[in-house]
Amino acid sequence: MAFTTANGRTQSSLAEINITPLVDVVLVLLIIFMITAPVLQSGIEISIPKTRTVRQITESRMVLTIDRDGNLYLQDKPVNIHELPGKLRAASADPAREVIYLRADERVQFGVIASAMDAVKQSGITNISVVTQPLNSK
User: Fold this and answer.
1) Could you give the domains of the chain?
2) pTM flag (> 0.90)
């Protein structure tokens, strides 16, 4: 749209949208999410057993959680033990190379943990790591 100024010159209005601030905000948000995502753990409250040797988890892996009532969660989503092998097969491209972390409350009976491990093995995943916490040295 053109308009005339007081001195008689014709000027056109700026009709372009400047998207540079939008790109800046999106990139900052992306960096924030990339930094905080690995820090966030599963939102299911459990008391993990404590051991002397603990290895830090740095890479992103599938996590199977068993709460104190024996409920199973795959990546924070409730799952039935009978549906677990199918869901694990669907989530993994190569089950033989996949690693799954098992987080279980220390009060869960071993039979529930053994059943969950069996369901994981039925999916073809044989590498199961149990998540523990370090002992507090006094």
Assistant:
1) 2-36 (no CATH), 50-134 (3.30.420.270)
2) no
